Amino acid sequence: MPGVNYYLGKIIEVLVISVAVAFVTSPLSIRIANRFGIIDKPKDGRRVHKKPIPRFGGMAIFLGSMLAMLIPAGMNQNIKIAMMGGLLMYMLGVIDDIFDLKAAVKFMGQFVIASLVYAMGIRITFISNYFGAAVTDSHANVILSGGAGYILTVLWIVGITNAVNLMDGLDGLAAGSVAIMSLSLAYIAYIHGTRLGSMPVCIALVAVAGGCLGFLPYNFSPAKTFMGDGGALYLGYMIAVLSVVSPLKRATVVGALVPMLTLAVPIFDTLFAMLRRALRHESIMKADKGHLHHHLMAAGFGQRRSVLIMYGIVGIMGIVAVLISRELYKDAFFLFMIAVLYLGIIIVPKQSKKGIKKVITQDTSELEKEFFTEYLNYERERRKALREAAQAAAIEQVDKEEAELDNGSKE
Question: How many CB atoms lie under 10 A from the CB of residue 289?
Answer without folding.
Answer: 22
